[in-house]
Amino acid sequence: MVDVIEQSSAVFPPRARLSAVQAQTWVGAWLAIMSALILTMVMVGGATRLTESGLSMVDWAPVTGFVPPLNEADWQAEFAKYQTSPEFKQVNAAMTLDDFKTIYHWEFWHRNLGRFLGLAFALPLLFFCAKGFVPKALAPRLVLLLVLGGGQGALGWYMVQSGLVDVPEVSHYRLAAHLSMALLLFSLVWWTALDLLTRAPRKPATLNH
After folding, report:
1. pLDDT at 6 over 80
2. Which among 86, 40, 46, 89 is positioned nearest to 175, based on CA atoms?
3. Distance CA 201, CA 48 (A)
4. How far apart are CA 117 and CA 35, in angstroms?
5. How far apart are CA 131 and CA 202, in angstroms?
6. How confident is the model at residue 208 (pLDDT cuts 50, 70, 90)?
């Protein structure tokens, strides 16, 4: 009976405990992934601008806007909104619904990538904080990055709004601010990731996994 118990313990070891070094590595790896996602977001945003798709969605619904048009009636409704915009009236008056769908998809998935990025930052941050993986000194910086990320989404809509008034062209100042904020976020997240992955924890400890 004792042998069976010993064999059982070997197969099912006691609950693993995560060291401070391992916890720091997990957080650093997560932030490295986040920096790659931010860079991807910048590239998708650039492609959206190059394809002249950024003004295809004339309203902002940060909570409910993740659902795409599901049927022909939905597409016609979105197209009708676009037809009220300066870009349609002055540049794309001959655009068909099929043409509209192409530019709409670019902007739609660009925005949804932003939503995904926000969740991919907020949810793991809550998990790591709840588990005690985040050093107290680092927590304010991560919360600040989360707030800046939310602000980046609002700044993006502020930029788009400038092209929906009279002239179908976004403000270059707002565009520059939007891009600068994205690069700042990328730099801060990547710097924090490298800081965690390359330095030893100040206080060695054992954390519950």
Report:
1. no
2. 46
3. 41
4. 10
5. 18
6. very low
d(CA 183, CA 170): 19
Q: Where are the alpha helices (DSSP H) in 51-96?
A: 72-82, 86-90
Return the residue matching tokens 């989404």: 153
* Predicted pLDDT of residue 17: 57
Give the Cβ contact number of residue 8 at 10 Å: 9
Q: Given its phi and psi angles, is residue 132 left (phi above 0), alpha (psi -120 to 50 degrees) or beta?
A: left
Of 175, 57, 140, residue with least CA distance to 105: 57
Q: Which residue in this structure is represented by tokens 């996602």?
A: 37
**Amino acid, res. 169:** E
What would the two tokens of residue 16 be?
């693993």
Residue type, 147: V
Question: How many alpha carbons fall within 13 Å on the CB side of residue 199?
Answer: 9
Yes or no: say if 74 and 5 are a contact pair by the CB < 8 Å rule. Answer: no
Q: Please, where are the H alpha helices in the chain?
A: 2-11, 20-50, 72-82, 86-90, 97-131, 139-161, 172-198
Mean pLDDT confidence for 197-204: 66
